């Protein structure tokens, strides 16, 4: 799959053994193919990554309309004979299933690469410009500007089926998808600005299987009974009955792509999360998140979900079991691959705090490594989901590591379930009720942002007791608030009296000192005058000169 809005190519092969990726097609004329090995825990080995060089093949990666995968068909057991030295024959069973990387270009060209991208397996040139493409097993389906639908085998240049659209041909087609069925006869989904058409191409003259009033659908998935379909549009995911064309259920999830596994609807959302809903339930049952990153692609393999998330400019991979998804409301992927890169350990922070106290310098803010933050989030979620004792949850909430930004991030991204929200709020409110003057500012920050961002969760009829507790807390705070001005005025008066007493003492000391200084100065001045008179009488002048001045003109 390719995202034109982000310029990212990200696509798992059908058997999840390869992953095609390019983070910036505008600057690089190549795509990387990552081999995926379960035995190696899906870790990236850069030496095994293949690079498809489009420039050497006179191709431009920025002109790619679609990137995806097809296979060489159903796995087959092949038997080879091996002649030994004693002329006995041994049978070797080999399972053959190879993936092929498919690119379609706007000029009508379809290029099929080998699984590692090093070789070109097939090139198909369509007469008209290609507008939409999808793959299904070993087949490539296209829709061109002539409103013609064509089906190609990946290793052939001539189509095995061609027909022109009737419904939707005069409309602006926004989506084209192959819907797999149990009878191996796929249906086609055509999305326009106003309608969603399901077409049966298996007949000699393809017919419209169903027409739904759904505009701008972005992804769809047919249920196994072939009578219902899940459709994701710009605003939500909905379940429709194909025969009656009525909407049966709806979930408020903005999805880019979705896959069905049993009763679970697994979707990649527009904000880079994996949201999972159960068709038998009303709300989201699980959210999978990669902190400070985004999940860019996913696939379901057996009883697991394979995820690819962006680590700077490289993909990283993780596998989560469906059982884990069913049992947890939120799953946080550890996006920190090097736990040893902790900025400051808890022990170091303690030593810094002690040193700063001695020097009377304000302590530095506690820095927490990315791995530690993920651990904090997961630990708090597990305590809330498992109904841990309130004291344990409270100890987690008042930890100095929970600064306001981290609290806001947790409430925004991880506090999704109304049940978990109500439990967290109940712990905070009950603590504040017991002691409204509790000296824990972090609890007030928690409560403030929960009410601002998750207030709707607290209005549910299921959590009436929490709403009642909040009202009681409000009443307690009101009574405390009424006494606060009186206490503050009393405190102000006491401080004023204390200050006045200090001032009186300082003024009294100042008056005594001034009187003493004045007396001392008077005595010194008297003694100085007498000495001056005596000194004047004892003065003698050299050469008969004195200080008297006589005007010579008078004589």
From TrEMBL:
Q: Which GO terms describe its molecular function?
A: tRNA binding; U3 snoRNA binding
Enumerate the InterPro entries for this protein. Answer: WD40/YVTN_repeat-like_dom_sf (IPR015943), WD40_repeat_dom_sf (IPR036322)
Which GO annotations describe the biological process of this protein? maturation of SSU-rRNA from tricistronic rRNA transcript (SSU-rRNA, 5.8S rRNA, LSU-rRNA); positive regulation of transcription by RNA polymerase I; tRNA re-export from nucleus
Please give the Gene3D superfamilies that the UniProt record associates with this protein. Answer: YVTN repeat-like/Quinoprotein amine dehydrogenase
This protein's source sits in the domain of life called Eukaryota
Segments for region (Disordered): 345-369
Question: Coiled-coil segments, which residues?
Answer: none
Q: Where are the compositionally biased (Basic and acidic residues) regions? A: 354-369
Question: GO cellular component annotations, sorted alphabetically?
Answer: rDNA heterochromatin; small-subunit processome; t-UTP complex
Specify the protein name. Answer: Small-subunit processome Utp12 domain-containing protein
What lineage does UniProt assign to this protein's organism? Eukaryota, Fungi, Dikarya, Ascomycota, Saccharomycotina
């Amino acid at each position: 799959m390719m995202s034109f809005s982000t310029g990212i190519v990200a696509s798992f092969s059908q058997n999840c053994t390869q992953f095609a990726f390019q983070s910036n097609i505008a600057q690089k004329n190549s795509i990387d193919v990552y081999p995926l090995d379960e035995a190696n825990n899906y870790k990236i080995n850069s030496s095994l990554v293949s690079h498809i060089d489009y420039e050497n093949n006179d191709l431009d990666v920025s002109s790619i309309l679609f990137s995806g995968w097809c296979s060489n068909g159903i796995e087959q057991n092949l038997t080879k004979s091996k002649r030994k030295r004693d002329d006995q024959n041994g049978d070797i069973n080999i399972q053959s299933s190879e993936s092929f990387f498919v690119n379609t270009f706007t000029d009508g060209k379809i290029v099929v690469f080998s699984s590692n991208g090093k070789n070109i397996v097939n090139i198909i040139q369509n007469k008209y410009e290609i507008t939409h493409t999808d793959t299904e097993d070993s087949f490539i389906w296209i829709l061109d500007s002539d409103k013609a639908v064509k089906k190609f085998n990946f290793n052939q240049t001539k189509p095995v089926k061609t027909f022109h659209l009737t419904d939707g041909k005069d409309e602006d087609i926004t989506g084209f998808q192959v819907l797999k069925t149990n009878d191996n006869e796929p249906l086609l989904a055509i999305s326009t600005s106003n309608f969603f058409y399901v077409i049966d191409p298996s007949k000699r003259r393809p017919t419209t299987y169903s027409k739904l009033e759904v505009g701008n659908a972005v992804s769809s998935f047919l249920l196994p009974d072939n009578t219902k379909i899940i459709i994701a549009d710009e605003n939500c995911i909905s379940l429709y009955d194909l025969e009656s064309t009525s909407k049966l259920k709806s979930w408020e999830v903005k999805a880019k792509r979705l896959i069905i596994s049993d009763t679970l609807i697994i979707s990649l959302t527009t904000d880079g999360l994996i949201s999972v809903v159960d068709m038998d339930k009303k709300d989201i049952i699980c959210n999978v998140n990669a902190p400070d990153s985004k999940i860019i692609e996913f696939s379901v393999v057996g009883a697991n979900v394979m995820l690819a998330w962006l680590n700077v400019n490289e993909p990283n991979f993780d596998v989560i079991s469906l059982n884990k998804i069913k049992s947890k409301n939120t799953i946080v992927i550890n996006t920190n691959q090097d736990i040893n890169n902790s900025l400051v350990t808890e022990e170091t922070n303690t030593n810094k705090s002690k040193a700063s106290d001695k020097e009377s310098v304000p302590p530095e803010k506690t820095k927490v490594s990315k791995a530690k933050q993920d651990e904090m989030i997961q630990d708090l979620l597990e305590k809330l989901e498992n109904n841990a004792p309130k004291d344990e949850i409270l100890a987690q909430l008042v930890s100095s590591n929970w600064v306001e930004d981290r609290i806001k991030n947790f409430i925004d991204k991880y506090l999704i379930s109304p049940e978990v929200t109500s439990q967290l709020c109940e712990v905070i409110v009950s603590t504040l009720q017991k002691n409204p003057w509790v000296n824990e500012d972090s609890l007030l920050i928690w409560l403030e942002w929960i009410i601002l961002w998750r207030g709707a969760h607290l209005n549910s009829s299921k959590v009436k007791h929490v709403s009642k507790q909040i009202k009681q807390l409000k009443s307690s705070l009101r009574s405390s608030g009424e006494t606060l001005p009186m206490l503050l005025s009393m405190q102000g008066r006491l401080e004023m009296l204390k200050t006045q007493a200090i001032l009186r003492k300082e003024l009294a000391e100042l008056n005594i000192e001034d009187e003493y200084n004045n007396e001392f100065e008077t005595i010194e001045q008297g003694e100085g005058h007498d000495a001056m008179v005596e000194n004047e009488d004892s003065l003698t002048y050299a050469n008969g000169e004195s200080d008297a001045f006589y005007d010579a003109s008078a004589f």
